[in-house]
C-alpha cells in the first residue's frame, strides 16, 4: 500500500489551521452524605441555587441549599446507586427540559425522558424549568372563553384563556374527570394541552393516558408523569416542567392549557425535601416558602399582550382536601393565588349529581368576560334560579304547604339540576349547551318527568341537529342570542314539544 505524502500533508495542515485551543473546566466536588433523595456535597464553592450538577454515574441533581461548607443537592433519579465519596461536577446550566411538537402525544418524566416505550424524543429545543412570570405590562385581560364542554362550568363558573381556575374537593369527587373532559373538549380548537400527574398512582395515570388516546386527544397533549413511586424531587419539579413545555407554545403565540394534578402532593414532596435539608418548618410542618413555591408556578399562566404575541396559558390546578377542610394551609394558599375555584362536594357526588359542583361556593373571578354573548344572556337567570331553588328546597323539607307558584319553581329547579348533570367524557359544544339551558330556563322541560329529563335532552339535541340544523349554525356563527336566532330557537323548541305530545298521545 502506497502512502500519498502530499495528501497526508494537506490533511495535517488543514487540521492545524482549524485547531482552536479550548480548555473546558468544571468544578468537581465530592459527596459527603447521601440518602432519601438528597445529597450533601463539598467542593462546589461556585455552585448557584437552581444549578444542575452531575454525579459520576450520570444521574443529575439540582442545587437546593447553599450552606457555608457544603451544598445540598436534590437527586433527580435513582439515588440508591450514589455513594459517599462519589464525584459530583457542576454544569454551569439551569435545569432544562426538551420542548416542541415532538413532545406531543408522548408520556414523559419531569426531565423529559420518554416513559411510553415509543423511542427517543427528537427535538433540539429546550426551556429552563424555572422561568420568571411575565410582568403586569406584558399581560392583557382575560376575555376569550376556554370552553370546558361541561354545562355547569361554562354557564356558571366560566374559564377564559389565560385564567387560573382551581379545582378543589375531597378524594374521589371527580376532580380529574373535570380536567380530562376539558382537555377532550379542546379537540379541533388549536389549544395544546399539558397534563401533569404529580404523586398519582401509576395505574390512575395509565387510565388517563388511555382515555386521552381513545378520544383522539393524545395527539395535542403532553403527559408529564411523576407517580407516587417516584422520588420526591421529581414530584416537586413536575409542575414546573409541565409549565415550561406549555410556555414554549405560549411564547410562540399559541393557546395552551396545563392541568396540575395535584398540587397537594407536590406541596408534600416539597415539605419532605425541605425537612430533609433541615429548613425550618412552619404551619403544618410546611416550609415558609411553600406559598412562593405555588405562586411562582401559577403566575406563569397568563394571556400575553399583543406585543408579546398574544399567546395564552390557562392553568387548572387541582387541590385535594381532607373532609372538606377548605381552610387548611395549602387550599387557602392556592385559593388566594387563583382566579376562582370549582368546588366539588362529596354529598352531591353520592346523590348522583355529577359533576358534583357546589354552585354556591364555586366562583370565577373573570365571570361573564369569559363567556360568549349567548351564554351570558341565559346564564345569569340560571344561577339565580338555582340559588332560589336551594332556599325553597330547604324550606319545603319542613313539610309546609306550598302555593302553586312556589311548587312550580321547585319543580323547575329539580329539572334544572337534572339538566346540569353530565356523563364523563361527553363534553358538549357551547351551542348545544345554550340550547339545553335556554329550553330549561324557559320552561320547555316543565312537563317532562324528572327521571326522563336527560333522555329528553338527548332527543332534543338530536332533533335540532337533524331537523333544525340552521338554528344551531346560527348560534355558532353569531355566538349571540340575537332576536332572530332566539325566534328560530323558540319555533324549533315549540315544534319539538308538539312532536313529543303527539307521539305520547299516539302511544296512549
Beta-strand percent range: 15-25%
Radius of gyration: 28 Å
Q: Estimate the helix proportion, in percent.
A: 25-40%
Flag low-confidence runs. none
CATH class of the largest domain: Alpha Beta
Distance between the termini: 105 Å
Mean pLDDT: 92
Tell me the domain tally.
Answer: 3
Using DSSP, what is the number of strands? 16
Predict the CATH topology of the largest domain.
Rossmann fold
Task: Count helical runs.
Answer: 15
Which word captures the global form?
elongated
Biggest β-sheet strands, sense, barrel: 8 strands, mixed
CATH superfamily of the largest domain: P-loop containing nucleotide triphosphate hydrolases
Query: Major sheet: order of its strands?
Result: 8-12-11-13-14-10-15-16
CATH architecture of the largest domain: 3-Layer(aba) Sandwich
What is the structural class?
Answer: alpha/beta
Word description of this protein:
The protein has 508 residues and is of the alpha/beta class. The protein has three domains: 66 residues, Elongation Factor Tu (Ef-tu), domain 3 (Beta Barrel); 273 residues, 3-Layer(aba) Sandwich (Rossmann fold), CATH 3.40.50; 133 residues, Lysin (Up-down Bundle). It contains 15 helices and 16 strands. The strands form three sheets. Strands 8-12-11-13-14-10-15-16 form an eight-stranded mixed β-sheet, sandwiched between helices. The protein is elongated. The chain starts with a helix and ends with a helix. The mean pLDDT is 92.
Amino acid at each position: 500500500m502506497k502512502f500519498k505524502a502530499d495528501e497526508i500533508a494537506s490533511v495535517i495542515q488543514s487540521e492545524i489551521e482549524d485547531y482552536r485551543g479550548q480548555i473546558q473546566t468544571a468544578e468537581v466536588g465530592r459527596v459527603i452524605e447521601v440518602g432519601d433523595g438528597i445529597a450533601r456535597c463539598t467542593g462546589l464553592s461556585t455552585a448557584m441555587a437552581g444549578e444542575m450538577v452531575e454525579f459520576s454515574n450520570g444521574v443529575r441533581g439540582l442545587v437546593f441549599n447553599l450552606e457555608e461548607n457544603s451544598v445540598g443537592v436534590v437527586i433527580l433519579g435513582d439515588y440508591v446507586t450514589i455513594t459517599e465519596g462519589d464525584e459530583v461536577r457542576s454544569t454551569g446550566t439551569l435545569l432544562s427540559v426538551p420542548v416542541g411538537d415532538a413532545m406531543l402525544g408522548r408520556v414523559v418524566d419531569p426531565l423529559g425522558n420518554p416513559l411510553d416505550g415509543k423511542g427517543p424524543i427528537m427535538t433540539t429545543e429546550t426551556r429552563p424549568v424555572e422561568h420568571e412570570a411575565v410582568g403586569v405590562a406584558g399581560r392583557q385581560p382575560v376575555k376569550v372563553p376556554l370552553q370546558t364542554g361541561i354545562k355547569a362550568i361554562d354557564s356558571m363558573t366560566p374559564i377564559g384563556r389565560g385564567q387560573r381556575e382551581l379545582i378543589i374537593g375531597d378524594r374521589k369527587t371527580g376532580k380529574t374527570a373535570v380536567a380530562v373532559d376539558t382537555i377532550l373538549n379542546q379537540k379541533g380548537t388549536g389549544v395544546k394541552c399539558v397534563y401533569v400527574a404529580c404523586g398519582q398512582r401509576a395505574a390512575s395515570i395509565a387510565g388517563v393516558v388511555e382515555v386521552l388516546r381513545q378520544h383522539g386527544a393524545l395527539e395535542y397533549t403532553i403527559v408529564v408523569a411523576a407517580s407516587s413511586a417516584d422520588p420526591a424531587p421529581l414530584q416537586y419539579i413536575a409542575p414546573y416542567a409541565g409549565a415550561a413545555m406549555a410556555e414554549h407554545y405560549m411564547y410562540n403565540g399559541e393557546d395552551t392549557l396545563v392541568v396540575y394534578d395535584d398540587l397537594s402532593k407536590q406541596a408534600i414532596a416539597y415539605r419532605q425535601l425541605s425537612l430533609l435539608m433541615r429548613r425550618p418548618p412552619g404551619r403544618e410542618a410546611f416550609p415558609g416558602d411553600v406559598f412562593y413555591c405555588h405562586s411562582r408556578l401559577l403566575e406563569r399562566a397568563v394571556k400575553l399582550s399583543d406585543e408579546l404575541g398574544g399567546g395564552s396559558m390557562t392553568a387548572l390546578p387541582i387541590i385535594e382536601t381532607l373532609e372538606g377542610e377548605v381552610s387548611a394551609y395549602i387550599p387557602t394558599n392556592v385559593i388566594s393565588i387563583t382566579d376562582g375555584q370549582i368546588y366539588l362536594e362529596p354529598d352531591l357526588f353520592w346523590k348522583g349529581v355529577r359533576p358534583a359542583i357546589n354552585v354556591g361556593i364555586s366562583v370565577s373571578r373573570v365571570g361573564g368576560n369569559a363567556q360568549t354573548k349567548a351564554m351570558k344572556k341565559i346564564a345569569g337567570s340560571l344561577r339565580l334560579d338555582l340559588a332560589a331553588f336551594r332556599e325553597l328546597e330547604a324550606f319545603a323539607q319542613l313539610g309546609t304547604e306550598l302555593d302553586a307558584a312556589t311548587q312550580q319553581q321547585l319543580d323547575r329547579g329539580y329539572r334544572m339540576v337534572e339538566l346540569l348533570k353530565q356523563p364523563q367524557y361527553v363534553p358538549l359544544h357551547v351551542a348545544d349547551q345554550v340550547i339545553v339551558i335556554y329550553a330549561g330556563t324557559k320552561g320547555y322541560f316543565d312537563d317532562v318527568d324528572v327521571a326522563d329529563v336527560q333522555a329528553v335532552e338527548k332527543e332534543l339535541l338530536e332533533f335540532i341537529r337533524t331537523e333544525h340544523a340552521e338554528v344551531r349554525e346560527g348560534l355558532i356563527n353569531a355566538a349571540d342570542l340575537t332576536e332572530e336566532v332566539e325566534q328560530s330557537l323558540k319555533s324549533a323548541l315549540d315544534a319539538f314539544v308538539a312532536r313529543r305530545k303527539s307521539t305520547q298521545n299516539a302511544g296512549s
